[in-house]
Amino acid sequence: MRVLVIDETPLRASILEEGLREAGLEDVTILSETRLLMRQIVEIDPDVILIDLENPSRDVLESMFQVSRTVERPIGMFVDQSDAGMIERAVEAGVSTYIVDGLRKERVKAIVEMTVSRFNAFNRLKRELADTKRALADRTSIDRAKAILMRRHTIDEPAAYAMLRRAAMDQHQTIADVARALVSASQLLEKRP
């Protein structure tokens, strides 16, 4: 596992690095300079990112939240002080773990494992939500297409569905794709010039 540590404080970065190495994570890169940060992250291509901000200003925190929103990686963030608003923004930005006043090398391994686990769980939920939305949109298109066919041919719902299924097989498309095309074509035909 390749771990990127972003920390401008050498002493605190060494605590994280030591904790990672004691946890058996040897592929560790320390970034102490945040200029051109996104470019550096792309070049390093880490599996996990740990950001230590000690006592950050709101601007620095917002900048790191922007990194979290942009990169699709598990991100653990260490800060010494925070408030409810910052915690909420960290969660919204996709930070997997937000640790307040908890930078100790013996905790690093558990925090990395939690960061990866929460990132994977959140991504699984995002995929399931996207799949559910797509299935619902497909269902809506199919229902609308069936209604068009039922009205046009004076047939019942099973017959309309059979027509859609047959067209999908003939055109090597999904039933939802055929339904969307039918709905779109029907809307065009109903429009007056």
Write the layout of secondary structure elements.
Layout: E1 3-7, H1 10-22, E2 28-31, H2 37-44, E3 48-52, H3 58-70, E4 75-79, H4 84-92, E5 97-100, H5 108-153, H6 157-171, H7 175-190
Parallel strand pairs: 1-2, 1-3, 3-4, 4-5
Helix pairs in contact: 3-4, 5-6, 5-7, 6-7
Trace the largest sheet across and list its strands. 2-1-3-4-5
Structural class determined from secondary elements: alpha/beta
User: What characteristic shape results from the CA principal axes?
Assistant: elongated
- What is the overall number of helices? 7
Rg, Å, rounded: 26 Å
* Largest sheet features: 5 strands, parallel
User: What fraction strand?
Assistant: 5-15%
Q: Which regions are unreliable across 5 or more consecutive residues at pLDDT < 50?
A: none
Topology as H/E string?
A: EHEHEHEHEHHH
Ends apart, CA distance between termini: 61 Å
Question: What's the β-strand tally?
Answer: 5
User: Which bin fits the share of residues in helices?
Assistant: 55-70%
Mean pLDDT: 90
Describe this structure in words.
With 193 residues, the protein is of the alpha/beta class. The protein has helices spanning 10-22, 37-44, 58-70, 84-92, 108-153, 157-171, 175-190, and strands at residues 3-7, 28-31, 48-52, 75-79, 97-100. A five-stranded parallel sheet has the order 2-1-3-4-5, with helices on both faces. α1 links the parallel β1 and β2 (28-31). α3 (58-70) runs parallel beside α4 (84-92), α5 packs across α6 (157-171) and α5 packs across α7. The chain starts with a strand and ends with a helix.
